[in-house]
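DM from R.C. (forwarded with permission)

"hey, sorry to bug you on a friday — could you get me a structure for this? deadline for the figure draft is monday and I only need the backbone to look sensible"
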Amino acid sequence: MEPTRRDILALGLAAGACAAVGGAAHAGPAARPVPFGAAVYLPDLEADPRLGAAIAARCQRVTPVNELKWTYSRPDPDAFDFAAGDRIADFARANGLAMHGHTLVWYAELPDWVNALSSAAEAEAALAKHIETTMLRYRDVARSWDVVNEPIPDVVRRPTDRRDSPWRALLGDGYIERAFRLAHEIDPDAQLVINEYDVEHATEYFPAKRRAFAHLIRELVEKDVPVHAVGLQGHLRGGVPIDSEELAEFVAEMRGLGLKILVTELDVIDAALPTPIEERDVLVARQVEEFLEAVTSSGPLDSITTWGLTDRFTWIGWAYKRIDGTGNRPLPLDADYRPKLMLDVIERFRRVA
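My reply, with the result:
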């Protein structure tokens, strides 16, 4: 349905309103803002000085997009290459930002030598060396880490299903527990996060994936594995309904287990949304609002991070290019760094008592 002028005004004024809806119910006169962050890819940061200035002005956290993934930081078993990661960390330090470490263990972006590992002992040694070396290097600036990223397959048939990876092939499902215990040994004060995508919608495979994610987390908590927080990536599918009730129940259960909730990679895949910019921006902001209402219904978030800050630099532009030839608009700032309605919505959900 096409948004009315009233819809546009309501969303545009959301940052200044404290309506008792969703996360706004937590607002109060002594509110402290939930930390806001953005993911950044080093080539983008170095190509446009406006990007660094915008992140420094608006954010409290920064997440490296690729720089700490194994392909980039661990070219062979005996060598690390932290040149790019160091530049992101130095940017964070210079601007008084925290860096969220992304990611210690993932099924993707692995160098060939990892895929060639042939024994549990080799995999265990590689994992331990990587976690120790990476966490110690950035201990002063990275106080939170995506320890295990995307452990649930897209198509889930049973709640016990886990995504295939070299780690799982050699170490079994226990690689997840081992990674968290190793990370906690290296830095007992770091916040350790299990991070996943596609758990927020009501259609297709999303509910089964959400149930499997909850099953895994319950299993880890029951074993006293040092998982401290759940990362909800929030790559929202434009036009696909948010499963508000079930998502809110999932988050409430996680809080009941003593876990914090982070939104780690928020954006809106707008490839199927209408062409007119004003209409599309309203629909994007409305979907972000529905998502944040659901995940804050039982309490405030620990942080909100968008996967990029400006439409000028977004993975959605190449992964989900619009067929009408117009640029994608998935992020809080447009391609000219002007704030959009999505930013107003995020700012409202940052205000908590």
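R.C.: lifesaver. The chain has 14 helices and eleven strands.
me: no worries. The first strand starts at residue 32 and ends at 33.
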